[in-house]
Each structure stands twice: as structure tokens, then as C-alpha cells.
Amino acid sequence: MTAALRFDPIRLPPKCEELRKEVRAFLAEEMARGTFNPFKPNREDTDVPEFCRRVGERGWIGMTWPKKYGGQERSFLERYVVTEEMRVANAPTRRFFVADRQSGPVLLKYAPEHIKMDILPRICRGEICFAIGMSEPNSGSDLFAAKTRATKTDGGYLINGTKIWTSSAHIADYMIAIFRTSPPTKENRRHGLTQFLVKMKQPGIKVNPIGQITGQYEFNEVVFTDFFVPDDHVLGEVDGAWKQATSELAYERSGPERFLETYYVLTELVRAVGPTPDTRSAEGIGRLVAQLHTMRRMSVSVAGMLQAGKEPVVEASIVKDIGTVWEQQLPHRVRDLAAFVEETASNRETLERQLDFAIKTAPKLTIQGGTTEVLRGIIARGLGLR
Amino acid sequence: MANTGNAVAESDNIVVETAEKIFADLADPQTINNDKNNSWQAPLWQALSEAGLPLSWVPDDLGGSGASLADGFALLNAAGRFAVAVPLAETMLAGWLLAQAKIASPEGEMTVLPASPKDRITVDADGAVSGRCRGVPFAKSAKHFVVLAHGKDGVAIALVDASKARIESGLNVGYDHSDTVTLDKLQPLTIKAAPGGFDQTAMMLMGGVARSLQIAGALESMLDISVRYSNERVAFEKKISKFQAVQHNLARLAGESAAALAAATSAADAIANAKSFDDEVYLEAAAAKIRCAEAAEKGGGIAHQVHGAIGFTIEHILHRYSLRALAWRDDFGSESYWAVELGKLVAARGADQLWPLVASR
């Protein structure tokens, strides 16, 4: 057929279930010691360095990477279990998650050996935080319009320009960014961008926080002024970042974090309606659970394909499209159903506070990490329409 | 049919390969859509029967071809891709149900009763069965009914001569027979106790998964013919596939098709590997029926939108898939029925047991 989309029914192997028990026990311990409150996704303390180090001690950061770089050489399916359990518990993974999912794999593929040996073990130990420098004030979804310049100088490059909407830049130790090293060519407008490793917290970099409609300050403007990056911090081919961008997308787009961001309101809704819900609540919950289950099965299937060495870019884009639209609508559907919850429900206030936050969070979910429009363009290309 | 070649090439399943060859030869969608007398049905059924496909799930010693559950599920998905209007799924389910009670399968078309979780058939002390069942697929063309009946001693499975029952003929939205069957103290040809733990819910879950696989197959074909049409049809001096609005609609159709396929094959895999119809199988099967039914509505709607007026004509093949996918939503419990039941199950287990259920495999 035109689009040979595959979603084989991958099952997690038994060793994943043992790992799941370990992760749940660990998270229960962390909650007990007060590291985080799973019922408060809108807490201020999303950055908890000690927690990250303890996750690192368990070997759960960079767990699929080679042992010589601090990894555990475990499977993508095992990583999947750790990721989903952390996400469902609302654990504060912000500090290490970007490095674990994206930055580490980019370094593994493109960084020189001495940099890999220096940085990857520190990621695995939960010591360092990464940011991703893609968007600019006039370049969002249109990545290849980026203008921040990297000008060749003795032993490296001088960076001038501004990145924006950069999550965690205010706490990040490093950023992986794309900068313009050459103008685009007539034949290829994607030509001329190069991927760099940037050490943050240096003179020449100014990080300005940007307030979000949730009341949080998770993303930033990052201004570079004659900031020096040495030659060995070039990642991959000069002017050829466009060739490197696509294969990582499947990892970035198909994980459980792409449909579980507002999951907590569903749990609390089930608690609020109690063991014998009316028909309306039962039907609403049943549909949401069926949709959730289906997305998870799709997402696990993509993880299985990645483990098998495939590059399911279209399938991954479908997971993110459906997943993010679902997690965006979820707070609104839960709000509909919660309208008839008894005043006496013990968790009523918790649910209301959570809904307030989830409803404010919802708009970003179909924008961050590739908008719905971009994803549907990728899917359309996969279908042979472009 | 454009997807035939690739599906056969990809298939490592001899049952599916055999079926797809037969469908391609005898159930070409355009040919059968032009045939006003349905004269293609008898040769198709004969070919399927000669290949042993309707009794795929019946062991050799009970008269069937003894295929695995997994192979049979893959066959149903293929049947959905061709939207075949013969009682293949129904006869497979009937044979499977008979095999649960170690009853041998007869030849010819069969269907199962009840076809809705709300209908109930009873068996009295003499072994006679009574009850009224609505929406029974292909009852009109079935030679035998396989009946799940409730009696004082529990659940029984019975083989009934269809000509002895009263049948009020009806059609579903896909123009296939969906009839009301009344059994009035009817003596079955054979009746035996169902195995321990087997009940009407298990039968409905199995039927629901069969329909989910068929819906997923129909959606795969709807995506295929919609993409093909959009690459052919010109409007405003370009192919409509070049319009972003059309591309995004087709991307959403691909998403619905993918979701249906993932949900249905996951549920099929769960049943094929499960020892019993436990909560995890219940979640898988109920979720598949709910999600596939939703996809039939959303995806089918997009397929029609892409086709415009031509897809609304009876001459065009699109309705063979779109209407059947909608009709299949109703069999063995609609999505709203299963959503209520799944919601009750989730609520009864409690909030803190929801994630462990979802993440159970």
C-alpha cells in the first residue's frame, strides 16, 4: 500500500517488569523523603540536583549508552519503562531528561572521543544539564531560517545572535545548538548550518528568563556576543546540520513523554468519581483510558522498532501528533467529567488545582518539539504527497 | 486493489497469503461493486471454504484447519482490507465458539448468537434454547447458529439449525445482513457445557477484537485509495495532494488508521497469548473496540472529504469500506457500551491501579 505504516504489537520483556518494580520502589522512597510531591505538577522545585544524582547512581540516565561512557548498554525498551514511570509519578527529571533523550545520543554520534569521555559520564551521573538551541526570534518551525552566526576565527568560531524559547537554559551546563556557518545556496536552502556544543555559564552568553502563561519560567532567551567555541566543539559536518537532524527525530518524538504530560488529571478524576461512577463518568473515563492505552501501545511499538535498528520517522511523528493532541484535550475532557463530581470528594481541591495548571499547560503541548503542522507535513511526505 | 501486492510481499503468513490471493481474484472491490446481483459471493465463499479459511480456528479433529489464533486474526485484518461481505469472520467465530465446548463444526456459513452483550439466550432443563437477539450479522445466509446460552448449570454452547429459528431480516448501514433472530424452545443439534470461566463477556471481547481488526483493515484501504485519489485528482490547476489542507487531512487519516491497527493487533496479540480473559485482556479488547470505532468515524469522514462528491456515489468503492467500518462498530458491543464497562472496571480497581493496568505489558 501507499503508506506501509507498521505498529507491531511489541511486548516489554520480563526484565523490564523487574526494572519497573525497582523504579517504582525508588520513586516511592523519594516521595517519602519529600523530594517531590506527585500531586503537585506545578511545583516550583522542578530542578532538584540531588534527585538527579540519585537517579544517576541507579544507572538510569544514559542507560542505553556504551559502558565506557558511563552507560549500562541496556535496551530502549528498558529506558522506556524508566521514562514512563518517572513521567507518571511527576518526578523532577527536567535537569537530566534532555541530555538523556537527545543531547547524549547526538554527542555519541558526532563528538570527538575526548569530549565524549569528558561529558557523557557526567550526564550518566546526573551531574549536568543540557539545553537545545534551535529556535530564534525569526526562526521557529522553519529551522533552516536560523541566522545566529558562527564566524571562523583562530582555533574556533565566534558566535553572535540570539536563541529563544530555550528550555532550561538558565540551569544548563551545556547547549547543543545550530549556528549559521555559511549562507544557504540556491540549490539547497538547508545548507550552511552547523551543529555545535556550547559550554554555558561563560562570559559572552546572557540568559534572560521568559515568563510563561503557566506562571513558570522554564524557557529563556539566550544572547551570544562574540562568544568563542573551539573547533573540537563542532558536532558533525560543517554546513551539514540538515543531514543530521532527521534520524534523531524518531527518538525525540515517540516517547511516553509525548502523551503523559497531563496524565495526572485522569488519575485524580478516577479517584474523585469513586468506585461506582455514574454512566456518564464511566463512559468518559472508559474512552480516555482506551485512547491512552492505544497511544501507549503505538509508542511502545516505535520503541521496539528503534531497538531493532529501524528508523520509524513517520510512525514516530504519528505518535507525537496523536499523543500531543490527546494530552492537550485531556484536561478539558476531565474538566467536563469533573463538573458532576460530588462536592464531598476527598481530592476535589487537588483535582481543581491540577486542572487549573493542566489547562494552562495544554497550549504548549502541540508546539514544543515540532508543531502539529510540521508533524503532519512529515507524515504527508511519508504518504507520498509531497 | 493497490495494496494487495505489497501486503502479500510483506506477509510471512501462509493463511493470509492464501486469503489475499482469493480476495484479489474473486473479490476485487470495483468488480463486486458493479455486480448488482451479488453473483460473486458464492464463488468467493466456495474458494474460501476449499482453502479451509472459515474454519481456521477449529482444530483438525473437530473438522477445521487448525490455524493459530494469531493467523486467524491476521486473516480477519486482511478480510477488512477487502471489506468482504461474506460471513467469514462470523463463521470463524462460530467455529471457535464450538471448539470451546469440543463440538465439531459443520460445513457452510455460520453465525453466532447473541451478537450484542445486552441480549441473552436461556437454556431450559430439556436443553431447549430460547431468546431474541438483534443485530445478528449474516443470520439470513447462515446454515447454522452457534449459541451461547445461560441455564441453571451455567453457560452452555449449542449448535442450532438456522432454518428452525424465526428470522426478521434487516440490513446494517453497510448494506450487509443484520437480522433479528428468535429462538423459541428450540432443540439444538448439539449442546455442551462451556469450559469453566468462559462466559458471554469472553465471547463479546473476542467478537469485538474480530470487528476491530476488520475496521483497521478497512481504514488501511481507505487511506490507500484516498492517497491515490488525491494524487490523481486535479483542482485549481494542481493535484489536490499538493494542498496543505488536504495533506493534513490525510495525515490525520493515517493517524487514525495507525491507531486502529495498533489497538486491534495489540488486542489480538493479547488474546492469542493469554491463558484467560483477565483484566489485561479486557482492557486490550475493550480499548481496541472503542478506539477502532472512533477511528472508523473520524478516518472514514476524512476519506470521504478527500474524495468529494465522487466518493458519495454508489458506483465508487469507497463506501464499501467506510460504511462497513461504521456498521462493524455496532457488533458485539458498541464503543459506548465498552467505554462504560471499561470505565466501571477502572473505577472499581481504583485510581492508583489505573497506571499499573495500562502499563501491564
Automatic annotation (TrEMBL), chain A:
Pfam families per record: Acyl-CoA_dh_M, Acyl-CoA_dh_N
Family matches, as PROSITE patterns: ACYL_COA_DH_1
Residue intervals of the Acyl-CoA dehydrogenase/oxidase N-terminal domain: 16-127
Requisite cofactors: FAD
Domain Acyl-CoA oxidase/dehydrogenase middle intervals: 131-226
UniProt KW keywords: FAD, Flavoprotein, Oxidoreductase
InterPro entries cross-referenced by the UniProt entry: Acyl-CoA_DH_CS, Acyl-CoA_Oxase/DH_mid-dom, Acyl-CoA_Oxase/DH_mid-dom_sf, AcylCo_DH-like_C, AcylCoA_DH/ox_N, AcylCoA_DH/ox_N_sf, AcylCoA_DH/oxidase_NM_dom_sf, Mycobact_Acyl-CoA_DH
GO CC terms in record: plasma membrane
SUPFAM superfamilies xref list: Acyl-CoA dehydrogenase C-terminal domain-like, Acyl-CoA dehydrogenase NM domain-like
Entry's Gene Ontology molecular function annotations: acyl-CoA dehydrogenase activity; flavin adenine dinucleotide binding
Protein name (record): Acyl-CoA dehydrogenase
Gene source species: Bradyrhizobium manausense
Lineage: Bacteria, Pseudomonadati, Pseudomonadota, Alphaproteobacteria, Hyphomicrobiales
